[in-house]
């Protein structure tokens, strides 16, 4: 119990199809308001002899009254499998994919402009004019 919290894993399952280890993570932190995902990743990396970049921790919820949190952890065999099987929004969170740009209105306007054009011209709609 170093760092003021205890980390326990349960329901550990090896998923060979997705090349990962799946588990439920229970964190008991009586003196702390919560434990950061980075600290949890480091502790799991040390316990399961993996690199923190291969670990995904998500779905953390603190129990009513505090001092106890529960979430999920995935430990991938390597970073390639992580990039292949993780949803895009989690990859964006990790910084492995670029963030989405443009407002919702801009995307809708572009979609409607493309509807009015046929063939190869669809690719050039909304790109902008070349500077001289």
From TrEMBL:
Residues 122-132 have a biased composition (Low complexity). GO terms for molecular function: structural constituent of ribosome. Residues 102-132 are annotated as: Disordered. GO terms for cellular component: ribonucleoprotein complex; ribosome. GO terms for biological process: translation. Residues 102-121 have a biased composition (Basic residues). It comes from the Eukaryota. The keyword Cell division does not apply. Keywords: Ribonucleoprotein, Ribosomal protein. InterPro entries: eRP_eS24_sf, Ribosomal_eS24, Ribosomal_eS24_CS, Ribosomal_uL23/eL15/eS24_sf. Belongs to the eukaryotic ribosomal protein eS24 family. This is 40S ribosomal protein S24. It comes from Blepharisma stoltei. The lineage of its organism: Eukaryota, Sar, Alveolata, Ciliophora, Postciliodesmatophora.
